[in-house]
Amino acid sequence: MDHPSSTVPGADCPIRLDPTGVDLHAEAAHLRQTGPVTAVELPGGIVAWAVTDHATLRDVLADSRVSKDPRQHWPAFINGEITPDWPLYLWVAVTNMFTAHGEQHRRLRTLIAPAFTHRRTQAMRPQVERITADLLTHLADTAPGQVVDLREEFAYQLPMRVIGHLFGLPDDHRDDLRRVVDSVFNTTADADEVRSTQRDVQATLTALIAAKRDEPGDDMTSVLIAARDEDGSRLSEAELVDTLLLMVAAGHETTVNLIDNAVTAMLTHPDQLALVRQGSASWDDVIDETLRWQAPVAHVPLRYAIEDITIGGTTIRVGEPILASYAAAGRDPAQHGADADRFDITRSTRRDHLAFGHGAHYCLGAPLARLEAGIALPALFARFPDITLAVPAEELRPLASFIANGHAKLPITLQPSPAH
After folding, report:
1. Which of 48, 116, 122, 134 could form a disulfide with 364, with the two C-beta atoms 3.0–4.6 Å apart?
2. Which of 303, 355, 309 lies closest to 329 in space, CA to CA?
3. How far apart, in whole angstroms, are the C-alpha atoms of residue 387 and residue 392?
């Protein structure tokens, strides 16, 4: 697929991002070395400006001259050059607060924010604790020495069950939603899979909305269906479907990768785990350093310049797309020191990350993700103090994505084998 007019003028040699995400951090380091703003090529020949250092990205995320609405501010989308078979189409074409700008974004966020108040989030604590305890009890049946995929059996299951409870998702819908979410983050998907995913999104979420209209419950789907702002307007059907997709996908994948990466970090850095166990550091420190060191979402497509702007010494022309590169910013030596590649839960800048965004689009679900990880991690390591990786760390394989940053599998043993 070729989109000649969607390229960035003057960017003659863009760095082609690896859609398989084989080595996100080596790629991120290369991007940073070329400057804070670098031309990159996305799937389909789309060229965008990747913002890779912490300070510059923070400014971009809060800049009112930068939009997330392609329908208003991306000429290639407006002109029909970005077609539904593009692998990242759903990332830019959905109609929810993720792709809204200005007053429209404020309207949608106002309607959705009540679902994620501090009170509602804290009210989820007993449910998260119960789900965590159930999953750990199930894992306790594992024979000593048996290898378990902890991403599948724990890191994945907890957020999906929490989201399922929060949005009233029937158990028989969760497999469908899982397949949809996995495909959305798969940046190696071909045109057939992309189109199939779009159909499945509509079918699965439309069915859920219809069921909740017939029988409203004490869940966020029912709240969103009934939500009205001060002017009496409500979410349109398209906004409702796409908002549910955003909540399920973002609220799930980020937390899965956070738990996955935190467990991996602790198992490969026993000195850091010892600090937590002796009380010299907290699990909150682990969570923040993990978010910095392994941003759960490496790159987030896309933003667009509303006017010509100069960022990090580079002029981005009106209508040109911008890629927020969180993985690169998280290891920016200018922000985190020369040892930014090192995992250190005592690092003074561990909280100075942008993993949940910044500015108007800061992630509403961040407190819930923190709550889940803050319950899951100490419970896991307390229940299974002898937990170890079942393979050398260098054999762990990443997800096939330059967006999602996690492992395809996380093989571990919970208890030593009888021979040991």
Report:
1. 116
2. 355
3. 14
Cα separation, 304 vs 166, in Å, equals 33
Higher pLDDT, 220 or 146: 146
The answer to whether the beta carbons of residues 286 and 377 sit under 8 Å apart is: yes
Cβ–Cβ under 8 Å, residues 353 and 295: yes
Cα first-last separation, the chain? 55
Q: How far is CA 44 from the centre of its chain?
A: 22
Alpha-carbon distance of 76 to 93, in angstroms, equals: 12
Per-residue pLDDT, averaged over 30-56, amounts to 96
Q: Which of 415, 380, 411, 381 is CA-nearest to residue 133?
A: 380
Listed in order, strand segments (DSSP E) in 258-316 are: 299-305, 309-311, 314-316
**CA 69 to mean position of chain CA atoms:** 19
Which residues are bridge partners to 147 per DSSP? 413
Instruction: Check: CB of residue 226 under 8 Å from CB of residue 217.
Output: no
What's the half-sphere exposure (Cβ side, CA atoms, 13 Å) at 370? Answer: 20
Whole-number Å distance between alpha carbons of 23 and 88: 20
In sequence order, the 6+-apart residues with CB closer than 8 A to the CB of 269 are: 343
Of 65-69, 151-155, 225-229, 245-249, the one with minimum mean pLDDT is 225-229
Tell me which residue of 94, 70, 90 sits closest to 80, measured CA to CA.
70
